[in-house]
Design a protein that fits this description.
The structure holds 2 protein chains of 2 kinds.
Chain A: E1 33-34, E2 73-82, E3 92-97, E4 122-126, E5 132-138, E6 143-145, E7 151-153, E8 156-161, E9 170-175, H1 194-199, E10 203-204, E11 215-218, E12 221-223, H2 232-235
Parallel strand pairs in A: 2-11, 2-12
Antiparallel strand pairs in A: 2-5, 3-4, 3-8, 6-7, 8-9, 10-11
Chain B: H1 17-22, E1 39-47, E2 57-62, E3 88-92, E4 98-104, E5 117-123, E6 130-136, H2 146-150, E7 160-164, E8 171-173, E9 176-177, E10 187-188
Parallel strand pairs in B: 1-8, 1-9, 6-7
Antiparallel strand pairs in B: 1-4, 2-3, 2-5, 5-6, 7-8
The chains are: A mainly beta, B mainly beta.
Chain lengths: 236, 189
């Protein structure tokens, strides 16, 4: 079977990153052991068109109770690719985020900022035949957290990504360009390399910005690709 | 050289529940009345380095059907896979750090010798998920499994779910110890 590139640990964060205090007791300390890539690693859940409905990808409409959610309306688009640049169609993306004030609907979030009765900040979308996705939402606010004195998370949208197999599973966060809180954030700074950090910052996309309606952002996502074997063709 | 570099992981954080658990019903029950195979329950705690439950964690599993087939295009036996079984499950471990799955005992995947389930754990405080496997204590062929045998003997038990004989439905206990003396074996496939 086609083998896939392993997790690139030069790009992904380590399990233990002391400035993010909760990592100390939660990440494995022993060395990860090798696992051969067999059928169980090279398969994964398959999602059909019935997995999502139209409203799932419009967070400004999917939780309305008595009006529109408050905040800056945005459109987020992007492409899901593997490392060889192959588009990944029919992949499920799940997103969740704080509201415009920096408050999550989650009951554990006790940040003293208002909930929005018309916004849950939860959505889902399948990539299309070209690996592209698009959803509409409200720009999330920054919020404080207890990691250290005056700790604030930069505005972000959580992404959960299913690729085509078990190895491509990814949970990550999309940030917004120019946010001064990124350089102060131990979660963002858990990333070991500057280029990796850049890949989690969306681009403002004027071609997506819709007149009189919403600003656009573009966020492409890259997951493990097949191992490339450059000499295979010559040998064949 | 790859043209594109992997997008790095970030933590799932504490607030995933509404999107990942509530938007899709019954993700920790993989079976319905048409699913073939022996119904089983797998349950356990996700524990941190102080043996405290991680109450904002999530476990995902991926497994073959009762005959060892996957409903996925990469499986040459896909046409024979059970249409009433997706193979994917997800359980929050929010209540006391306990996750639970109702599923079927997987069959033996062609080319392997004993059944197992692939697993991932996500949590606040983990910048990237961890990958492991669940084997079953009542399987004699575990001793001949390539992956189990690649694990140091003193750590092998961390990958084996223990059948609880007291339960009417076969129930396997499988705790995930993120650290400590019994740290679960995690893999880098």
């Amino acid at each position: 079977m086609t083998q896939f590139n392993p997790i690139n640990w030069k790009t992904h964060p380590p399990y233990i990153h002391p400035p993010y205090r909760s990592t100390a007791k939660r990440g494995p300390l022993k060395k990860l052991l090798p696992l051969p890539q067999k059928l169980s690693e090279l398969t994964g859940p398959v999602f059909g068109a019935d997995t999502v409905n139209e409203l799932d990808s419009d967070l400004t409409r999917n939780a309305r109770v008595n009006g529109e959610p408050i905040g800056e309306r945005i459109i987020v688009v992007g492409k899901l690719l593997d490392e060889s640049g192959n588009a990944i169609p029919n992949a499920l993306l799940e997103v969740w985020q704080a509201n415009a004030c920096g408050r999550y609907i989650h009951k554990v979030d006790q940040h003293d900022a208002p909930l929005d009765p018309n916004f849950t900040g939860c959505g889902r979308v399948l990539t299309d035949a070209n690996g592209e996705y698009r959803f509409t939402t409200i720009k999330p606010g920054a919020y404080p957290w207890g990691n250290h004195e005056n700790a604030w998370r930069p505005a972000h949208i959580h992404f959960s990504v299913f690729g085509t197999n078990f190895l491509q599973r990814l949970v990550t966060q999309m940030y917004f360009p120019g946010d001064p809180l990124m350089s102060l954030d131990p979660i963002f700074n858990g990333l070991p390399d500057e280029n990796g950090k850049k890949r989690l910052v969306s681009d403002y996309a004027h071609d997506i910005t819709t007149p009189e309606w919403a600003l656009g952002y573009r966020f492409n996502i890259v997951v493990n690709g097949p191992k490339e074997t450059p000499f295979e063709t010559k040998e064949a | 050289m790859s043209q594109f570099e992997q997008s790095p992981s970030q933590t799932i954080g504490p607030f995933f529940r509404n999107a990942l658990i509530e938007m899709t019903a019954n993700q920790n029950n993989l079976i319905n009345e048409n699913t073939a195979g022996q119904k089983i329950i797998i349950t356990g705690l996700v524990l941190d380095g102080n043996s405290q439950p991680i109450t904002d964690s999530m476990v995902e599993i991926w497994q073959a059907d009762a005959n060892g087939y996957f409903n996925h295009p990469a499986d040459p036996n896909r046409a024979k896979a059970d249409p009433a079984f997706s193979g994917h499950g997800r359980s929050e471990a929010v209540n006391g750090g306990r996750y639970t799955f109702t599923t079927i005992k997987p069959g033996i995947i062609p080319g392997t010798v004993t059944p197992y389930i692939n697993l991932r754990v996500f949590a606040r405080g983990m910048l990237i998920h961890a990958i492991s496997r669940i084997y079953f204590s009542d399987e004699a062929e575990n001793d001949n499994d390539e992956v189990l045998n690649s694990v140091p003997a003193e750590r092998r038990h961390t990958l084996v779910a223990q059948l609880d004989p007291a339960e009417p439905i076969p129930t396997y206990r499988f705790d995930l110890n993120m650290q400590g003396e019994n740290e679960t074996v995690f893999f880098n496939p």
